[in-house]
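Model it.
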Amino acid sequence: MTCEVAVLNKHAVVIAADSAVTYSNGSPEKRYSKGGNKIFQLSNHHAVSVMIYDSGSMLGVHWELVIKAFREYLGAEAFETVEGYAREFLEYVRTNLVFSRTKSVTRHFCRQSGRDLCSFCWRRPRRILI
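Modeled.
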């Protein structure tokens, strides 16, 4: 079970997550570790991060690698809202060759790993200033 906390006010957002992770490697025996990263910096140039929970990978690719590749792709580009970063990240995952083999990949992404973020970005747009 993952514990993630976000505290926000009109000036800033602070995020935190535990470091416990569970590994199964396809076997019924599960292994536990306390050294997992669940918060990743989305941009090298701006204070925007992403927290992951549930599965640490999608279609066999670890989220950490996807986020690092996106960070390199993003470069110094900036968006005025967190929603802008979220939309760009989701579009990157949707169109990246590793993930875009079939339409079912996009459905899998929204259903399994980003359901809250997908509904946030595509159904209830809000302006959140950075």
